[in-house]
């Protein structure tokens, strides 16, 4: 019990750090958007994401309390993480177009672009981060299943919950650390320093925050799913992957 108490206290401290980080420093984005909404594209998008994530969680919890069922919360969060999975998939199209343009420009016109390298890692990184939570939702992450695949469904949920017990504090630490990483870059208007283009880098750093926040939200849903199965209830199945086509 003492170990459990320390673990809960540790989680509480991480939640406190996240609360202070997000809600203590996000006011500057809201102020800038309020003062000049037409010239603050990235700040506007950041605020919309933060508000959307908060509304999704709050709305899902509220509707679940009304229905006395965790299903509305599950559906609400999974719709949100799925949306960003689709956005991440669509980014690949932009990446392909940019790389084809670079190849044609470089090898047919001997005029390589200044932006291709940085555009490639930023688009690919953003696509990867946006897809993390959706991949978990669809159960497509790599799993070492030499034991997992040979036990009962309820035993699998116990194994999953043990894994989530380690994953949750790690994700809380990452969300706080990446938020600090992003806000420092935003404060000094940091640029990449990787090419002659030298773009501002903080919008890309915010995509890292988005990805980990979405993964944390989906992890909470997976915990709820596991608890439902252990309680003898059937959680709602996510839409099939074929629904993307």
């Amino acid at each position: 019990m003492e170990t459990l108490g320390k673990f809960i206290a540790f989680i509480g401290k991480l939640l406190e750090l996240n609360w202070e980080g997000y809600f203590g420093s996000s006011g500057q984005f809201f102020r800038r958007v309020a003062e000049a909404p037409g010239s603050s594209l990235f700040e506007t998008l950041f605020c919309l994401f933060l508000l959307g994530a908060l509304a999704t969680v709050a709305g899902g919890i509220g509707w679940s309390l009304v229905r006395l069922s965790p299903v509305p919360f599950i559906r609400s969060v999974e719709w949100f993480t799925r949306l960003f999975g689709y956005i991440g998939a669509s980014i690949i199209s932009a990446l392909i177009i940019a790389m084809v343009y670079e190849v044609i420009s470089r090898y047919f016109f001997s005029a390589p672009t200044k932006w291709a390298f940085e555009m490639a890692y930023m688009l690919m990184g953003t696509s990867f981060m946006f897809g993390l939570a959706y991949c978990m939702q669809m159960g497509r992450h790599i799993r070492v299943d030499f034991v997992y695949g040979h036990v009962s469904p309820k035993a699998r949920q116990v194994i999953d919950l043990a894994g989530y017990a380690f994953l949750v504090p790690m994700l809380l630490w990452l969300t706080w650390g990446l938020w600090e990483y992003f806000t420092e870059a935003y404060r000094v208007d940091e640029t990449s320093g990787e090419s002659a283009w030298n773009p501002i880098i903080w919008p890309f750093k915010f995509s890292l925050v988005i990805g980990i926040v979405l993964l944390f939200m989906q992890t909470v849903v997976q915990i709820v799913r596991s608890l439902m199965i252990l309680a003898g209830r059937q959680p709602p199945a996510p839409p099939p992957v074929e629904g993307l086509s």
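The two ends are 49 Å apart (CA to CA). The mean pLDDT is 86.
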